Amino acid sequence: MTSTTSRISAPHLSALDELSKALGTQGSGSLLVDDVDVQNFQRDMGALSDPHLPMAVVLAGSTEDVQATLRWASKHKISIVPRGAGTGVSGAAHAIKDCVVLSLERMNQILEIRPDDEVAVVQPGVVNADLNAAVAEYGLMYAPDPASYQQSTIGGNVATNAGGLRCAKYGVTRDSVLGLTVVLADGSIIEIGKQTFKGVAGYDLTSLVIGSEGTLGIVVKATVRLRYLGENQRAIAAILPDIETAAEGVLAIGRARVQPAILEMLDEGVMAVIDSIHGTKLKGTGGALLLALTDGFGAYLEEDVIREVLAGLGATLFEKDDPQSMALLAMRRVSRGDEQDDQYRVGEDVAVPRSKLVDYIRELHRIAERNNVWVRTVAHAGDGNLHPTFWIDPSEGEAGVERLDASLDESIRAALAIGGTITGEHGVGQYKLRWLGWEQSEQVRELQYRIKEVFDPQGILNPHKAI
């Protein structure tokens, strides 16, 4: 173990020495305690209001390391905060007081690819993009593709039930995970789920663990379903007069009974962000941009239907085979990446019924105007998942922050009022706990607490997150 600092109490220091020895016995894990080393594991990319340095960070290299850490934590009643790549934006990986962060990044092996079964078995630290690169040679893909897919890990995707651009057709992480190996709070291991596409034996504990943000157990292995990587892919880009018309276009595509793999909607503010990052010239061409991707053997036919539908709404369509259409989809992935969320700029993650997209977008602009803040919106429009970003000028100080907070609260209540949810794909984490009671009844939340108590009787796994 490296040298310590005064922030660690004597009893905790003694306990950490015990953990270091236990990890040394396993031979693959290591322990960090120096301020400069643990600083990088303090938080994810979500807004941070209550900063704490972890007492230590475990860099797990094996399932045995995870087991040893949880046995130790259970014995000493020390909180464990699991962490993947730290790309989450809800604060699920934020360190809390006197915790140990358990990093799974080193557990990054693709253990098995079974092309005929269309299945892969991976450790939690495997990067999403790396898995896709590995299975592409078999004509397959792992469908969930969060914007951070080049950095985010499968374990983190499972913990938050991550979504992405391809959710419109292929669903979220839960729809692509068949089985999990999970280490429980006491260090024991359970195997849940199945190796097959179909299977209904017992309760669906796999779906329960997915999206639980590390509050029920630590995933150390995942069996995931692979999909066909369509040889044909057709990108469609269309400029529409305003965001409301773009939302109408989303509904019109659905009424035409076409299911694009990707269907994204960007307002004028997001178009300006793309211009500033990539040097494009989208701003001023219209009020909204709609991006679609069709795939598979019907890609060309579906492209023609979508183009016809959008032309009927007055859209200006990029020419067929224009390489910028595909390039814009890649740019879309970083369209909120101009700066990290902080107290002056916060991106949201609500989902509403698709039929309510137009109404909700109009309400967002009314909320922004009422509170004198700015708003821009990008959406996974194919499944009704919107990411409005509210921001103010930092020079406005506390008065501006109060207006920003009011806007966020109103946007959440507005989504719930039309049958929406406080989070479509980013998870509750630490940041959205303040709104969870608005969506879920006290009875439902109490049931979740009781479920957690079964899995984690001492409450040491990522406490004060998710529920």
* Average predicted confidence as pLDDT: 94
SSE class = alpha+beta
Shape: globular
- Using only C-alpha atoms, the radius of gyration works out to 23 Å
How would you portray this structure in words?
- This protein is α+β, with helices and mostly antiparallel strands.
- Helix content is 35%, strand content 19%.
- The chain has 15 helices and 19 strands.
- The chain has helices spanning 10-26, 35-38, 63-76, 128-136, 154-160, 167-170, 205-209, 243-255, 268-278, 299-311, 323-332, 357-371, 397-417, 433-439, 442-455, and strands at residues 30-32, 56-59, 80-83, 100-103, 110-114, 119-122, 140-141, 177-183, 189-193, 218-225, 227-228, 233-240, 262-267, 288-295, 316-317, 345-347, 350-351, 374-380, 385-391.
- Strands 12, 13, 14, 15, 16, 17, 18 and 19 form an eight-stranded antiparallel sheet that branches. It has a five-stranded antiparallel sheet with strand order 5-6-10-8-9.
- A hairpin with a 5-residue loop joins strand 8 (177-183) and strand 9 (189-193).
- The longest helix is centred in the C-terminal third of the chain and has 21 residues, at 397-417.
- 48% of the residues are buried.
- The mean pLDDT is 94.
